[in-house]
Amino acid sequence: MSHRIRLRVYYEDTDLAGIVYYANYLKFIERGRSDWLRDLGLDQRALKEDQGLVFAVRRVEADYLAPARFEDMLDVTTALAEMRPARLILTQEVLRDGAALFRASVTIVCLDASGRPVRLPDRLRRLLAP
């Protein structure tokens, strides 16, 4: 199951050449992951407050395929590629009119209040189980 959000490229997202600054793609896919978890029914704020657990990016492997520009409407997709006891591996894309502009494989880990890796919350594992 793939999750999708839609966003517009604003002037602040672009560089002097009028294209989306490369680091902003990481912001776009962060929004996609946050909305994906929210739409699954997982409240990250409550998870932190109640259990002291947070998610952190451990690894990103990214391919920049084509530029996005000011005023473009983009779709950000997020899909689960693999679930391990303490991490998720997600595939994410930024698309314009169905054409991929950016692709990434993102490894997310679950951390406790001291910053140590811990098992994913049971509720999340149940939500993502096949």
What does this molecule look like?
This protein has 130 residues and is of the alpha+beta class. It has one domain (2-128): Thiol Ester Dehydrase, Chain A, CATH 3.10.129. It contains three helices and five strands. It has helices spanning 24-40, 44-51, 122-128, and strands spanning 2-8, 54-64, 73-84, 87-96, 99-111. The protein has a five-stranded antiparallel β-sheet. It is elongated, with a radius of gyration of 16 Å. 20% of the residues are buried. The model has no long low-confidence stretch (mean pLDDT 95).
Entry keywords:
130 residues; alpha+beta; Thiol Ester Dehydrase, Chain A; five-stranded antiparallel beta sheet; 5 strands; 25% helix; elongated
Total domain count: 1
The assigned structural class equals alpha+beta
Mean pLDDT reading:
95
What is the name of the CATH class? Alpha Beta
What overall form do the CA principal axes indicate?
elongated
Strand order of the largest sheet: 1-3-4-5-2
Distance, first to last CA:
10 Å
Write a brief caption for the model:
The chain has about 130 residues and is an alpha+beta fold.
Helices and strands, with pairings:
Layout: E1 2-8, H1 24-40, H2 44-51, E2 54-64, E3 73-84, E4 87-96, E5 99-111, H3 122-128
